[in-house]
Amino acid sequence: MNNRNRGKNTGDDTLFGSEKQISKLKRAVQDMQYLLTREYPEKAASELAGNRYRLKTRQLHAVRGASASRLQVDNRKSKELQISDLKDKTLYLDGFNVVILLESMLSGAYIFEGVDGCFRDLSEVHGSYKRVNQTAKAVDLVASFFQKSHLYKLVWIFDQPVSNSGRIKQTVMDFAEEHQFNWEAELQYNPDKFLAESSEIVVSSDAWILDHCKEWFNLAGYLMKEESLSVNLITIVSR
Questions:
Q1: Do 169 and 58 have their domain in common?
Q2: What's the CA gap between 83 and 156, in Å, rounded?
Q3: Is residue 56 domain-shared with residue 103, that is, in the same domain?
Q4: Sheet (strand 80-81) strand order
């Protein structure tokens, strides 16, 4: 029986569970945006912010994910589509990025809202993907979105080098066949490059993809509102 989930890591409540820590992370994001806007390299900017606020590794990971220059934010916002823009369109979905984020959201892990309005988690695929308790529900949520958006076709893109990518691809295709959805699933050796260069709408919270793609849709943001998901959301962006 599968008892795995993508919930919090040991120590995450200490790193992210108090106003003191959230305040520190907000200041770090402000500093990083200031530096990135002035064309500091991301590595240098994150090292400066991390050292200044004495951030732990997972805190720094969250800050990096939430940060972007003002030019990056403006560029991403200019390409963001709304649900009403998707009717009869084809959409390419960054498979592991989306599935793992939804699994994390559903299992109570901390989720971070960035300056670009995207939502990110702290989970990573280190060469191998394993199903968790929330995987089926994650696919169900994508299915609900697919039906409500009236998309023509949804194409899942998975990383071929990742172990078990073939299994999750088959899971998605079996689900599509069962429900008669117009879905496809592909394995790509370099999915980031593939998605960034695609002329189709993409779904991803990967910063590099968002910077280079033609158009994108904020699926996690949509699902949180539309499905009234209970999410352990941390906003480390100053309003």
A1: no
A2: 18
A3: no
A4: 80-81, 215-217, 201-203, 90-94, 153-159, 183-188
